[in-house]
Amino acid sequence: MNGSQSGADVIIVGAGIVGVTAAYDLAAEGHSVRLIDKGPVSDLQSSRNWGFIRRQGCDISEMPLAAMSSKIWDDIRDDIGASSTVVKSGLVYLSPDQENLDKYRGWMRETRADQAFGTELLSPEDVRSLLPSLTGEWAGGLMTPTDGHADPGVATREIAAAAARRGVTIETGVTVTGIRVSAGRVTGVDTTAGPRHAARVIVAAGAWSGRLTRPLGVKIPVRWIRATAARTNPVAHVTDLAVHVPSVGFSQTSDGSVIFGSAAWSDYDLAIDTLGDLRLFLPNFFRNRKMIQLHLNEVAFQDLGRRLTGATRGAALFDWRRMDDPPANRRKIEMAHRNLMSLVPEWRGSRIARMWGGTVDVTPDALPVISAVPRIEGLILATGLSSHGFGIGPGVAKVAAELATDRAPSIDIADFRVSRFDEGPIQAHAHL
After folding, report:
1. If we measure between CA atoms, which residue out of 13, 382, 323, 378 comes closest to residue 170?
2. Are 257 and 151 in contact (CB under 8 A)?
3. Which of 367, 8, 40, 368 shows the shortest CA–CA distance to 172?
4. Is 150 exposed, middle or buried (0-12, 13-18, 19+ CB in 10 A)?
5. 150, 161 Cβ separation under 8 angstroms
6. Tell me, what's the pLDDT at 319?
7. Residue 344 predicted with pLDDT over 60
């Protein structure tokens, strides 16, 4: 065990759900761990999502990962006493028309989720029985009774606190500016607080991961999508289910407030980086173009300016687009709030207590990257979770911890290898 002041057996870059859970797991195995983040724990992606914990809607290649994650969520909830934070009472997708319902049926046939997880198709009568408070006419829906939701920021911070109790060193407000490699082996990282030493480094830095690995010749193609979510004031209790309809997704927390967001579209801020690997992203963009709103704004001009001034190295590389508080799309969330109040009449007197933006790292095929790097011993990638990472994060963390300690991964991760982007056309996947 490396227990020196600046050293550890394993360094983890990024204190989101993947980073904190990997640290928690590794510490339980007796490894010394240093967790480093440029901001507070759970400051960005892991606190700014809807908090859905789901297998429902995942691609078939992610099913073992999602199943493992669901079990880990149960274990974590019991281990750290987070029963009020992590709620496994079911997830429902509702469809107002036959077209979406046919997509649900197709996903069920491909994944056999009914046999694996007890997922079931809902009739209009089932929907009315499950959610009597909801207005509207529904053609049917999809439900996985053992999926659920959590208050994402609270849950991530609780896991981090449990990891610290196990001896994990957590450094916040420290930017990792580079990964140290000597003779093909990782030796640590450079940070704004000085070097940190380890023979294993897990990169779980979300949208910023590719900026760390690029100087090593390791390309992780991701695009940064800006999502918006919000929380209401505490309102009357309506359901413990997590619910997704075409216009809004929501779940009610233990204090009665509702976390919600628009299911209709996300924002993409154009930049010079957009041109890189364009061929990889175009197929998925065209498949989902109705759900992505393009913006030409200050981000593009900031990108141009940093290139012209040479601000593309060291800490400057990570300060650009750091966006500790990405702008929320107010119009989008106000529309989602109106949809929410129309859907649930009991909440018509609610108000938006807080809204926020968040940066989401999306890969060309919307599958995560969980991979060792063969030519750099000790470098592990756990990133690119593509807008559904909170729920599958603990499984990603477990596999990353296994790779970092030379153990065989618990599941087949061939579909998540980083080299897939150089091996041929990107495959379309059956996400819902």
Report:
1. 13
2. no
3. 40
4. buried
5. no
6. 52
7. yes
pLDDT at 24 over 80: yes
Q: What is the pLDDT of residues 283-309, one digit of tens each?
A: 766 666 666 777 666 665 566 666 666
Q: Which domains does the chain have, with CATH numbers?
A: 10-90+146-422 (3.50.50.60)
Amino acid letter for position 35: L
Q: What is the DSSP letter of 186?
A: E
Q: What region, left, alpha or beta, does residue 158 occupy, with left being phi > 0 and alpha being psi -120 to 50 degrees? A: alpha
Sequence-ordered strand ranges (E) for 328-378: 352-362, 369-372
Question: 225: pLDDT confidence band, cut at 50, 70 and 90?
Answer: confident
Spatial separation of the C-alpha atoms in residues 62 and 427, rounded to whole Å:
14
Cα distance between residue 108 and residue 430, in whole Å = 10
Cβ distance 141 to 83 under 8 Å? no
* Residue 73 pLDDT greater than 70, yes or no: yes
Strand runs labelled E in 39-192: 52-53, 86-87, 91-95, 120-122, 140-144, 148-150, 169-172, 176-182, 185-191
Q: How far apart are CA 285 and CA 282, in angstroms?
A: 5
Residue 257 structure tokens = 């407030």
Q: Which residue has the tokens 């319902």?
A: 101
CB 139 within 8 A of CB 97: yes
- Predicted structure pTM score: 0.90
At 56, give phi and psi (nearest 5°). -60, 130
